[in-house]
TrEMBL record:
Keywords: DNA damage, DNA repair, DNA-binding, Endonuclease, Glycosidase, Hydrolase, Lyase, Metal-binding, Multifunctional enzyme, Nuclease, Zinc, Zinc-finger. One of its GO terms (biological process) is base-excision repair. Residues 2-93 form the Formamidopyrimidine-DNA glycosylase catalytic domain. Belongs to the FPG family. Its EC number is 4.2.99.18. Residues 220-255 form the FPG-type domain. This is DNA-(apurinic or apyrimidinic site) lyase. It catalyses: 2'-deoxyribonucleotide-(2'-deoxyribose 5'-phosphate)-2'-deoxyribonucleotide-DNA = a 3'-end 2'-deoxyribonucleotide-(2,3-dehydro-2,3-deoxyribose 5'-phosphate)-DNA + a 5'-end 5'-phospho-2'-deoxyribonucleoside-DNA + H(+). InterPro entries: DNA_glyclase_Znf_dom_DNA_BS (IPR015887), FPG_cat (IPR012319), FPG_N (IPR035937), H2TH_FPG (IPR015886), Nei2_N (IPR044090), Ribosomal_uS13-like_H2TH (IPR010979), Znf_DNA_glyclase/AP_lyase (IPR000214). CDD domains: AcNei2_N (cd08971). It comes from Pseudoclavibacter helvolus. It comes from the Bacteria. SMART domains: Fapy_DNA_glyco (SM00898), H2TH (SM01232).
Amino acid sequence: MPEGDTVYRAATRLSRALAGRELTRFELRVPKYAALDLAGLTVDEVVPRGKHILTRIGEHTLHTHLGMDGSWQLVLVGGRWPRPDYLARAVLGTAAGTAVGFELPVVEMLAREDEEDAVGHLGPDLLGASWDSKLAVANLRRDPGAELAGALLEQRNLAGLGNVYVTELLFLRGLHPHTPVSGAGNLDRLVDLAHKLIVANRDRVERTTTGDLRPGKRTYVYGRYGKPCLRCGTRIQRGLQGRERVAAWCPSCQPSP
């Protein structure tokens, strides 16, 4: 699942390509919207909200989510699509080029005034202009017995963190993934660090939580299972967080609660 910074960059690219331009082509390859055509209307803006993308077109909003395999690709006029046509689920064309959404698991049209129906459940957006750290902390504290990794991944608490950031954040704070929220210590500092990490990476193509962009050095524990901890040399362990998420930690730097 893409992290919030990946979605932020995708929405920024889309907005630069589409905002202020008239649509010459509009296709949603979803049965419910197959007959809908907004060609002739102008795209106002494209904005991210957590891991969701909202494309605002007049009174309408196109709501999409990348899921595990989705992506938005920009194609210049006359250019070849980078992925097979049958994978495209949304096509927005202008005189300058085309934005194509491939393998998008969520494609829905909303009245702009109804956007909150799709994203109103989300907690404060770490990369949003209205980021509210105090609300994020209050949301986390509502379930003190929840495992910390799962609570940070819950988009209703705060929106934008994925497995990479949560894994690295817990290492940096010396917290085991299975630590309960009540045992996490200073949640304000934890949430502030999450905000600093994702903001520092929002405009980078190569994400780093270590400050080192060399391959194999960009993360402390994520993706380094079985390798020595960059801080103490202990081998990184892995396990499951919940039923599906892979958790990683250093047994020495992040002792079991």
